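JOB MANIFEST
job_type = single_chain_structure
chain_count = 1
residues = 319
[input]
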Amino acid sequence: MENTNDIIFSIDSNYKILKFNTAFVRIIEGSYGFTPKAGFSVIDPKVNNLTTMRWKRLYDLALSGHDVDELMDADPPNENLKYEVSMSPIKNEFKDVTGVAVFMRDVTERFKAQEAQLEMSKLLEEKNKDLLDFSFIITHNLRAPTSNLISLLSLYDKDNPSTDENLEIMENFEASIHQLNETLHDLTMAVKLREEIGKKFELLNLDEIFTNVKARLAELNNMGKIAINSDFSATPELVYPRVELDSIFYTLLDNSIKFAHPGRNCVIKVSSAIIENQVHLTFEDNGVGIDLERYGDRLLDYTKDFIAGIQERGLACIY
């Protein structure tokens, strides 16, 4: 019993301690502040009631003749430790249960290793999903502009470069290159954002971030058709990763402009609020909108387009 760090002790049918090793003494002294002795009850009033009832349930199960195996958390101040507890009934020559033999092993490191392995498995699963996502993006979003470029190049008349048909081909060629460049830019930003998310949280001024985003959107140069009202007075600051918040503002503002209703001037309202002790950011616009009853369950599916005549990549929704 003494040639091990495992905890070993036994009790009788009245929960009284029969035998124990030094490891048992150490854990009792460290957790409960007293030195155990033979004859002491393991159902002790010094121990909190929750712990008492938890152990009594296991003792009773073993005293009824069953083997017990349980993973248990230690009590404060050792609550970060986990123990594998095994109990076996002690029987006399008449096969009557007279007590319980208890064996406890510290499995904290093994449990941490298993958790780390699970975390690694989740990470690998997530990375594999990322690879599939990027594979789809490359085949789906890059295929169209690339095919257009190849088709346009085959139609171009090299012998007569100044024809009207060639001029139209070059205009379409330029549009396809722009579409291809935008997709590649979004892919680059998605990778960058994945690297940045979670790295650094900092106190950010919402108005400052929003103003910087507006300055980067070329569409805002035509302010006569776009009215933006922002109010962050309820929560002027937010602790958040800068790159991610910047991306959220940019994507939502860009979408409000891109999907503006052709029959009216674009009006965008952005505000912050505290709701149930959480910061909420609200974007509102008077654009064409989305039929949520029809498309709500597919809103974050970047493989779907919901508005006819406008091709979108949908990358920002998933990153």
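[summary]
Helices lie at 22-32, 49-63, 108-141, 143-155, 164-196, 206-216, 242-258, 292-295.
Residues 7-106 form a domain with the Beta-Lactamase fold (CATH 3.30.450.20).
exit_status = 0
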